[in-house]
């Protein structure tokens, strides 16, 4: 039971890290934001997606 | 040689300390870390081939680790994973073009850290509670509802759903107000997100002084006592990922 | 990193005490380097396995499940291949159309609630919205899309809903 709590805590910590490192922070290159009337509507992280499709699967399944 | 940028660091008189730290740390796949200067700001980078910039778990953890370690000693702006530029020269020009914005953001986050508070509800229970508080009445208050066209009935149904959602949002706004009041004495910057998922009704990102951690935990404990039907999750301290969202040109 | 071998070669291997002393101290330096590297790698592992949770109530299992919905997963990714080019594009188009439809519906409800519309206008609104929703269902059926197929991760756009 205690181990499960530690695993879950780690899992949550890693999910939080993923969210920040992949979605937040200063945006420097390679991203497209589609705007309509000056409102940013759709964000396409193209470079990232092209290189990470296969490995995101690994990330999600916890490898 | 392509370079991936980990963060932009404020180095007023700490060049030596930064260099010492960069020698000790390793970047993605054990790569060496370098600094690229423009005036008193520095980009921390490592050499990498574009095709090797892959969002695998080990890469991301190594990347985040660098930012985490640097942030313990320096004021910095975390950079999103995947920011690759062709050469040192290009990076220096980028820093120059954006110097003013970089500086103002560095000032904003100096001596501050980020915390995240997620608030969860039980969607079924919360939905049932909200439904109970929204009276059922139609768009035409004069009529009993009989003899209405199928279109009118459709609209009434939609209207009911809409009112329930609005009610739910209003309740969430009350909790948000409460959270704002509960943490006001800590002088935070807040960024709220509502209804991230059906269960995760509020996500509050906070930027506040490094030394406020234990006070924050106390405030959250108090808040939890008040909301017995909600669950809370407080994480941190984090480097200020959520408070540096300006765009680099 | 200094290896003991290399430095021995540089200084000249010998049996005298002096050389042994140098060799021993080089051994110590080399060992320190190895330990240092080990320490550094352990240190960096530790920073991230450090638990960032300061306070939590409720089930961590459930929380972790909810949080994982935030990070993009396979179902919410648009895949365009030669085989599915037309349905892939259709998926994107229908997702955007449905999003606009829902935004329009929401705005209409606000107008009705505001009480500024006549009976006739409300009636027409109901008819139009209903037909839009039916049309949407038709289009989904035509392409064999389920609701979850159209649940593409639209990033900031999704927040509008």
Distance between the termini of chain C: 57 Å
The coarse overall form of chain C would be flat
Multimerization state: heterotrimer
Q: Largest sheet of chain B at a glance?
A: 5 strands, antiparallel
- String of helices and strands of chain B: EHEEHEEHHEHHEEHE
Largest sheet of chain C, described in full? Answer: none
Low-confidence stretches of chain B: none
Q: Please name the two chains that share the biggest interface, counting residues whose Cβ lies under 8 Å from a Cβ on the partner chain.
A: B-C, 45 and 34 residues
Strand content of chain C: under 5%
Q: Spans of chain C of 5+ residues with little confidence (pLDDT < 50)?
A: 10-19, 155-161
Helix content of chain B: 40-55%
Structural class of chain B: alpha+beta
Describe the fold and architecture.
The complex is a heterotrimer of chains A (63), B (249) and C (161). With 63 residues, chain A is an alpha+beta fold. Chain A is built from 2 helices and 2 strands. Chain A has a two-stranded antiparallel sheet with strand order 1-2. The model of chain A is unreliable at 32-42 and 44-56 (pLDDT under 50). Chain B folds into 2 domains: 3-110, Alpha-Beta Plaits, CATH 3.30.70; 113-243, Alpha-Beta Plaits (2-Layer Sandwich), CATH 3.30.70. Helix content of chain B is 43%, strand content 23%. In chain B, a hairpin with a 2-residue loop joins β2 and β3 (41-47). In chain B, α5 crosses α6 and α6 packs across α7 (213-226). Chain B is elongated. With 161 residues, chain C is mainly α. Chain C has 2 domains: 4-51, no CATH class; 75-160, no CATH class. Chain C is built from 5 helices and 1 strand; from the N terminus they run ααβααα. Chain C has helices at residues 4-11, 17-49, 60-68, 85-114, 119-142, and one strand spanning 53-56. Chain C is flat and about 95 Å long. Residues 10-19 and 155-161 of chain C have low confidence and may be disordered. Chains B and C meet through α2, β6, α6, α7 and β9 of B and α2, β1, α3, α4 and α5 of C. β9 of chain B pairs antiparallel with β1 of chain C.
């Amino acid at each position: 039971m205690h181990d499960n709590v530690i695993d879950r805590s780690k899992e949550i910590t890693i999910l939080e890290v993923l969210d920040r490192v992949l979605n937040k922070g200063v945006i420097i290159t390679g991203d497209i934001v589609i705007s309509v009337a000056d409102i940013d509507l759709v964000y396409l992280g193209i470079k990232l997606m092209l290189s990470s499709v296969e490995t995101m699967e690994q990330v999600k399944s916890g490898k | 040689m392509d370079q991936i940028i980990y963060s932009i660091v404020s180095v007023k008189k700490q060049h030596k300390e930064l260099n010492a730290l960069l020698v000790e740390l390793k970047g993605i796949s054990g790569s060496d870390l370098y600094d690229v200067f423009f005036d008193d700001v520095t980009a921390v980078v490592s050499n990498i081939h574009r095709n090797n910039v892959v969002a695998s778990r080990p890469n991301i953890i190594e990347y985040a680790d660098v930012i985490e370690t640097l942030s313990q000693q320096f004021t910095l702006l975390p950079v999103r994973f995947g920011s690759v530029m062709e050469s040192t020269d290009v990076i220096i020009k980028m820093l120059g073009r954006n110097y003013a914005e970089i500086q103002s953001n560095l000032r904003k986050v100096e001596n501050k850290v980020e915390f995240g508070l997620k608030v969860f509800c039980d969607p079924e229970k919360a939905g049932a509670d909200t439904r109970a508080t929204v009276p059922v009445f139609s768009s035409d208050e004069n009529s009993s509802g009989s003899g209405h066209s199928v279109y009118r009935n459709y609209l009434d149904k939609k209207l009911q759903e809409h009112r329930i959602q609005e009610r739910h949002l209003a309740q969430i706004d009350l909790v948000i107000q409460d959270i704002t009041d509960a943490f006001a004495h800590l002088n935070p910057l807040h960024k709220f997100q509502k209804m991230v998922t059906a269960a995760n009704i509020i996500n509050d990102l906070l930027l506040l002084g490094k030394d406020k951690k234990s006070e924050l935990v106390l405030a959250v404990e108090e808040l939890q006592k008040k909301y017995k039907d909600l669950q809370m999750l407080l994480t941190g301290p984090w480097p200020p990922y959520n408070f540096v969202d300006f765009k680099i040109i | 990193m200094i290896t003991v071998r290399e430095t021995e070669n540089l200084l000249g291997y010998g049996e005298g005490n002096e050389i042994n002393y140098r060799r021993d101290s080089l051994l110590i330096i080399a060992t320190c380097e190895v330990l240092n590297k080990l320490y550094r790698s352990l240190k960096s592992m530790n920073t991230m396995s450090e638990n960032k949770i300061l306070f939590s109530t409720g089930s961590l299992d459930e929380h972790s499940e909810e949080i994982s919905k935030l990070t993009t997963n396979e179902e919410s990714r648009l895949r365009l291949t030669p085989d599915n080019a037309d349905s892939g594009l259709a998926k994107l188009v229908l997702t955007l159309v449905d999003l606009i439809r829902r935004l329009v519906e929401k705005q209409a409800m606000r107008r009705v609630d505001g009480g500024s519309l006549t009976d006739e206008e409300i009636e027409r609104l109901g008819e139009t919205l209903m037909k839009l929703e039916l049309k949407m269902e038709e289009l989904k059926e035509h392409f064999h899309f389920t609701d979850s197929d159209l649940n593409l991760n639209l990033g900031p756009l999704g927040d509008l809903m």
